[in-house]
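Suppose you are handed only these lines of text.
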Amino acid sequence: MHIVAIYNNKGGEGKSTVTVGIAEFLAANRNKKVLVIDLDAQASSSCALLGRVALNTAISERRTVVELAAQLRQSRKPSIDPEQFIVWRAGKDARGSALESLALLVPEGDRMYDVETSMQWGRHNDLFLKHLKPKLTEFDYVLLDLPANVTKSAMICINGLSMADFVLIPTRSTHISLNGLPRTFSLIDQIRDVNGNGRPSVVGFLLNATDKRNQQYRSIVKPVVEVAMDGDIPAFFKNHWPSSPAFEASTDEDRDARTLKERFGTAYEHARKVARELEVACEKYEHKQAQPVKLNIWQKLGLA
Ligand SMILES: Nc1ncnc2c1ncn2[C@@H]1O[C@H](COP(=O)(O)OP(=O)(O)O)[C@@H](O)[C@H]1O
Ligand SMILES: [Mg+2]
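From them, the structure of the protein bound to adenosine-5'-diphosphate can be written out as follows.
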């Protein structure tokens, strides 16, 4: 089992879009058993994968992250049965590459803020990690769609990152996005210090919404990728996720796509390759301890 957090402390970098794409391809194209834990109150990936109606049904049946966190909090020695909270999406059979069945743990709107505020550093920071992680071994991949965070005390992010083996960081290929990377690392480094076992390890950056005609792409992204190739910062994925209406449409909650081709259209090959690259990277990094990123690297790159 690999637990991969899709994280960037900035919003709008593509965390949810990437989570949805990777989940669908690992499940349908690679035949993996996938659980998506959506920790963002906005529920973007839950809506995209389940649809609004099924999401609301899950909430009314109290199958949510909020209820799971409440149960963990209430009992001193929690014995949690994740199945009680997981929602299964049935696979959709059609000719071609059908969508596979997926498991989801969904958020619950504003009540996610209660989860956030009821957790405290040092007391509940290992709740998900300690009690949930050992129960998820039936899954090949657990993908965590994290929210953006402003402070280093964002407990939902802390919880998600502390149970993750790996972090995949989607980043748009603009100056403003690359400037956010040092801050993204500050929370990851903090969790790594607390965990003390080199986890989570950054499996790589994924350039999202790339447009090679763009001046910023040519002048800014290239030097950063070159430094990454020297091994000073984690690698960039070889495959990009281009800016494309097909990716934008892939998370449309009203779309009843039955196949990967229908859901991803012209983005199909890009999403397939990135999911495959993640799979290979997870295997490769499995036993490798992560190196903290050297602080002066960010300065060298002119990033904040
Ligand atoms: N590769 C892409 N091409 C086109 N639009 C994209 C792409 N990636 C993300 N978007 C759009 O950008 C917005 C933010 O993406 P999202 O995945 O919700 O980011 P995050 O989860 O990091 O906040 C969404 O409207 C999404 O449809
Ligand atoms: Mg999101």
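What can we learn from it? The beta strands are 2-6, 34-38, 87-89, 102-105, 141-145, 166-172, 201-210, 241-242. The chain has a mean pLDDT of 89.
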